[in-house]
UniProtKB/TrEMBL annotation, chain A:
Its main location: membrane. The chain crosses the membrane at residues 241-264, 284-307, 319-336, 348-366, 408-427, 439-458, 470-486, 498-517, 538-557, 569-593. Keywords: Cell membrane, Ion transport, Membrane, Transmembrane, Transmembrane helix, Transport. It comes from the Eukaryota. Residues 639-653 have a biased composition (Low complexity). This is S-type anion channel SLAH3. Residues 1-23, 183-205, 632-659 are annotated as: Disordered. InterPro entries: SLAC/SLAH, SLAC1/Mae1/Ssu1/TehA, Voltage-dep_anion_channel_sf. Belongs to the SLAC1 S-type anion channel family. It is a multi-pass membrane protein. GO terms for biological process: intracellular monoatomic ion homeostasis.
TrEMBL record, chain B:
GO terms for biological process: intracellular monoatomic ion homeostasis. GO terms for molecular function: voltage-gated monoatomic anion channel activity. It is a multi-pass membrane protein. The keyword Repressor does not apply. It comes from Aegilops tauschii subsp. strangulata. Keywords: Cell membrane, Ion transport, Membrane, Transmembrane, Transmembrane helix, Transport. This is S-type anion channel SLAH1. Homotrimer. Slow, weak voltage-dependent S-type anion efflux channel involved in maintenance of anion homeostasis. It comes from the Eukaryota. The chain crosses the membrane at residues 59-77, 97-119, 140-158, 164-182, 226-249, 261-283, 289-307, 319-338, 344-366. One of its GO terms (cellular component) is plasma membrane. It is found in: Cell membrane; Endomembrane system. Belongs to the SLAC1 S-type anion channel family.
């Protein structure tokens, strides 16, 4: 059965490529969808259940096409008539294992259509006339043609030809966007309204449970899909930018704004006065971080407006949830680094910033305590420190502003939960699956809470007393132990020779070295450094270093000698160099590799565990698609599109290599 | 079984109606169903049917805890001669007889419960032993002593310096010490009762007992003893807090009916705040931090009502667990308001005190209206099911 189906395909492809007579083509094209679509569509499933094909034929025709519903079949036929597109039929969409994977090769087909459109622009209008209905009925099969029209006609917005795959992640399942376009004067497509009761919205209607996040994802930041899992969204092409924009982008603001505070402290603190650092540096950094904050929060606000479901899934992600504290902590940093006297800032600002932190804490800590799926013994991870450190940062800022009771409140909450988290993380319970085994930058968050807590306690008490010292020395010890334990196999000498070298730098260097050597052969990276991928979240891991250096300067103000001065300058240097290096890496990823915002698969996991047959079908379909692609490429001898096909080839193979 | 429950009805409803009477006299004016002032126990029923004693357990001391806590709260509020807060005239306007009545009601309830429990010890010793081995029930063996200590501190006629006060302190503290040694020893030596397995919110009772002892000792001027008890309590509170927050998968052993016990989460830091305040003679930063932690935990629990939904379906004695933590929180807020002297703090104290009084009143009314539910057949705490662990 399967063999015969494939025979038909191949035959078709060869017929086309041989440019057989024009009378044959239309009849074949009309009849092929209604008759052998099942053969096209379920290559993968046929491979699994070859015997059940006859029953499946019926079902599949129901799903894929209602042939009678396309009465004016002549128009697309004419479009196909153009014999300069011999390969367009051989692109069969993959069998979409979860029912959601349409058109894995869309990127490839788009480019091909571009090429085609350049040759035959006269056809596009006819295609366009048919396009909405075609999309409705034959989503699986006619998309390449649609794209041709979409791309050619710049003025026509893709309202009716909208991409529905991302609908479940949009606010109200995309209804908001439709209404917006309606406001702009575009008529609502009646079919569009009724069509979103699909399997997709069913699948992504609810947020997956916590267990699913742990089952489906891996890596220290739970951001890689396991091999046995299938994403809800197509994994092989780029998603809309907003979907790829993670909450951890606020980490950048954290890193830069804490640098602004560091330079402000360097310029004003007595022990570092001999450096004669200009306040202008701090101000420049502050304005940069302010602009960054505005940019990032604007983009994220857009994400909240347009892709609320994606934000909801991010909030339920056990690690990402902690990053929802990042914007508020960054705001606290911004207020603290502001180029004016802190005592003049209105107290309302502090209360306004602490209110969301308080609400988030009620939510997150309540989840730990009440012991549902998110009990602490399960979700504990170094990134939980982000949810703790907000208390101390708030207490520090409040005490600096001269508020009496509020800072103690947040300090008390922070201290109690910090103890709990600290003990839990040190225990490394077997139920804690997300704790990274190897050293990862995320461990630097360990330093954050005690260093900020020491400053906050000193401010609350009015002097750098024993309590503050205890917290500071704990922070220093954790910092040093992170440095000492840095035994990365690739650069052992580096860590030993330069004793004070921060391990973040080491990790970072390993990473950069790895990046450079991998830049040539990209395939290696995926397997070899799976848990070591650069992500924007790394920015959030720099602020603990900055916090430790600020705390050291504060301590040096109290105990001024050569050692403390050296320490404060050294730690500040390390923090600054790390941030600078991270900046370079980010730029490298943004402009050279262009993968700063990769597909955020951690929000696109399925709600239930995919069935084994689906996984198998996924593999089969992808492999058979590969064969087909290769086949179609090799069978198209002539044409101008050769170059474009070979262009897309590496990207496709790269995408395929991932699962 | 029906005959047993029938025989229980008069036995239970009478002390409850006595409470209702006391309540009505205490200035509430709430109409009670039966205000028959017959507080004496009908011992013939108890003697004839010991079955009721089987079903009685230490969890019923929650009632006496709540009432004694209220007594202490009223005492503290009315004693506050220097307090310029808004609550002061309100408290002053109430006759002091109301407070004495409340105190004697608490004393009466506690005494009745103690008599019942002693009878249970005599007649149903295996049940008591089973309760002692139970991971939840064990903690409530501290409750009577905590109640006695509360009543001792609220005593209107016994100054803390009196020798009888010292005697009573020793009498009530020694059992707590013995139980401490037993329970804490079990936590880290007995193989079957590791803390990670037996920890549940009711374990806070052990800590509260220590802290209460410390506070009573500090009140009577014995600084060293107070600090010692505080240290023991604080150390174990730290361990318990961390363990409970982690919520190990294996230790989810609190029945849904007992969820109100979760309120003890914020009772312990409040109690620690009160104890430290008595020890250090001022409401310093440490006390404030403990009080704020208590407030946060309170907010955290109140903001997730789904946790208590299943327990709220039917009235049970576990409901009484709501009152005592709220009373402790109100006490701590009273101390805080006295230290800070800000309008916001006074408002907070007023709100918490009113809340705790209202909750206690509501519980009294519920108990008076539905005495049958107080000793149900399917009590998760029922002695028959106790030896399960």
């Amino acid at each position: 059965m399967e063999l015969s189906n494939r025979d038909i395909q191949i035959q078709m492809g060869s017929q086309l490529s041989e440019q057989s007579s024009r009378e044959d083509l239309p009849s074949l094209l009309i009849q092929v969808p209604s008759r052998t679509i099942a053969g096209f569509d379920c290559v993968g499933r046929d491979a699994v259940f070859p015997a059940a094909l006859s029953e499946r034929n019926n079902k599949d025709t129901v799903i894929s096409i209602q042939a009678p519903a396309t009465p004016p079949a002549a128009a697309p036929v004419r479009a196909y008539d153009d014999t300069q597109i011999p390969y367009s039929l051989s692109i069969s969409m993959p069998a979409s294992p979860s029912g959601l994977h349409f058109s894995q090769f869309r990127a490839a087909s788009v480019r091909r259509n571009e090429a085609r459109a350049a040759v035959a622009p006269s056809d596009t209008k006819q295609v366009e006339a048919q396009s909405p209905r075609l999309l409705q009925q034959t989503r699986f099969h006619s998309q390449p043609i649609l794209h041709a029209s979409q791309i050619n006609d710049g003025t026509r917005r893709a309202d009716s030809t909208r991409d529905k795959r991302f609908d479940p992640f949009k606010t109200f399942s995309g209804r908001l966007e439709r209404q917006l376009s309606n406001l702009r004067g575009r008529p609502l497509d009646p079919m569009d309204l009724g069509s979103h009761h699909s399997k997709i919205s069913e699948e992504t209607d609810q947020v997956p449970g916590t267990d699913r996040y742990f089952d489906a994802l891996e890596g220290p930041e739970l951001d890689t899909l396991r091999a046995t899992e299938v994403a809800v969204l197509p994994n092989d092409e780029q998603w809309p930018f907003l979907l790829r924009f993670p909450i951890s982008a606020f980490g950048m603001v954290l890193g830069v704004s804490s640098q602004a505070i560091l330079w402000k402290t360097l310029a004003t603190a007595p022990p570092t006065a001999f450096l004669h650092v200009s306040l202008a540096v701090a101000h420049a950094l502050w304005y940069i971080s302010l602009a960054l904050m505005g940019l990032v929060s604007c983009i994220y606000l857009l994400k909240i407006v347009f892709y609320f479901e994606a934000v909801r899934r991010e909030f339920h992600h056990p690690i990402r949830a902690n990053f929802f504290f990042a914007p508020w902590i960054a705001c606290l940093f911004l207020v603290q680094g502001a180029p004016r006297e802190l005592a003049q800032v209105h107290h309302g600002v502090w209360y306004m910033l602490m209110a969301p932190i308080f609400c988030l804490e009620l939510k997150i800590y309540g989840q730990w305590m009440s012991g549902g799926q998110r009990r602490l013994s399960k979700v504990a991870n170094p990134s939980n420190h982000l949810s703790i450190v907000g208390n101390f940062v708030g207490a520090l800022l409040g005490a600096k502003m001269g508020i009496s009771e509020g800072p103690i409140f947040f300090f008390a909450i922070g201290l109690a939960h910090y103890i709990v988290l600290f003990v839990t993380l040190y225990q490394r319970l077997p139920t804690n699956v997300t704790l990274p085994k190897e050293l990862h930058p995320v461990f630097f968050l360990f330093v954050a809470a005690p260093s900020v807590a020491s400053m906050a306690w000193a401010k609350i008490n009015g002097e750098f007393d024993n309590g503050a010292r205890i917290a500071y020395f704990i922070a220093l010890f954790l910092y040093m132990s992170l440095v000492r334990n840095q035994q990365t196999p690739l650069v052992p000498t580096c860590a030993h020779v330069i004793n004070l070298m921060a391990s973040f730098l080491c990790i970072y260097m390993v990473y950069v070295a790895n990046l450079i050597c991998v830049y040539d052969e990209q395939a290696v990276r995926i397997n070899f450094f799976r848990g070591f991928r650069f992500s924007l979240a790394w920015w959030a891991y720099t602020f603990p270093m900055t916090g430790a250096s600020i705390a050291t300067i504060t301590y040096a103000t109290e105990v001024t000698n050569v050692l403390t001065r050296t320490l404060s300058i050294g730690l500040s240097g390390i923090a600054t160099v790390t941030v600078a290096g991270l900046l370079v890496t980010t730029m490298f990823h943004a402009f050279v590799l262009r993968d700063l915002f990769p597909n955020d698969v951690s929000i696109a996991i399925t709600r239930r565990k995919p069935k084994f047959s689906k996984i198998l079908a996924h593999f089969r379909s992808s492999s058979s698609d590969m064969k087909e692609l290769v086949l179609s490429v090799s069978k198209s001898p002539n044409t101008d599109s050769d170059s474009s096909v070979t262009d897309t080839d590496p990207s496709v193979t790269k995408g395929k290599a991932e699962p | 079984m029906e005959t047993i429950s029938d025989s229980l009805k008069p036995c239970v409803s009478q002390p409850l109606s006595a409470k209702g009477a006391g309540l009505a006299e205490a200035g509430d004016g709430g109409t009670m169903l039966k205000a028959s002032p017959a507080p004496s126990k009908p011992p013939r029923l108890v003697a004839s049917r010991f079955a009721m004693l089987t079903r009685f357990h230490a969890g019923y001391f929650r009632i006496s805890l709540a009432l004694s806590g209220q007594a202490l709260l009223w005492r503290t509020l009315s004693d506050r001669s220097t307090d310029p807060s808004a609550l002061h005239p309100l408290v002053q306007s109430l006759p002091s007889a109301a407070f004495v009545l409340l105190w004697s009601l608490a004393l009466l309830t506690l005494f009745a419960l103690c008599v019942l429990y002693v009878a249970r010890c005599v007649v149903r010793l295996p049940a008591v032993r089973a309760e002692f081995r139970h991971h939840v029930g064990m903690n409530y063996l501290f409750a009577p002593w905590i109640s006695w200590l509360l009543l001792l501190q609220a005593t209107p006629f016994l100054p803390p310096e009196a020798p009888s006060y010292h005697m009573l302190w020793w009498a009530f503290s020694l059992p707590i010490l013995v139980l401490d040694v037993k329970v804490y020893g079990q936590w880290f030596t007995r193989g079957r009762k590791f803390l990670s397995m037996v920890a549940n919110p009711a374990s806070h009772m052990t800590v509260i007992a220590n802290l209460m002892t410390a506070r009573a000792a500090a009140k009577m001027g014995w600084h060293e003893g107070a600090v010692a008890m505080f240290a023991v309590g604080a150390a174990h509170y730290l361990v318990l807090f961390v363990t409970l927050y982690q919520r190990f998968l294996g230790s989810d052993s609190l029945p849904a009916m007992l969820r109100p016990v979760f309120f003890l989460f914020f009772a312990a830091p409040s109690m620690a705040s009160l104890a430290w305040c008595s020890i250090s003679m001022s409401f310093d930063t440490g006390c404030k931090m403990l009080f704020f932690l208590s407030m946060f935990l309170f907010a955290s629990l109140v903001s997730r009502p789904t946790l208590f939904k299943r327990a709220m379906r039917r009235f049970s004695v576990a409901w009484w667990a709501y009152s005592f933590p709220l009373t402790l929180l109100a006490l701590a807020s009273a101390e805080y308001a006295q230290e800070v002297r800000e309008p916001a703090a006074s408002v907070l104290m007023l709100a918490l005190a009113v809340l705790s009084v209202l909750v206690t009143l509501a519980l009294m009314v519920f108990t008076a209206l539905r005495p049958n539910d107080l000793l149900p057949h399917d009590d998760p705490f029922f002695a028959g099911t106790l030896p399960a662990r």
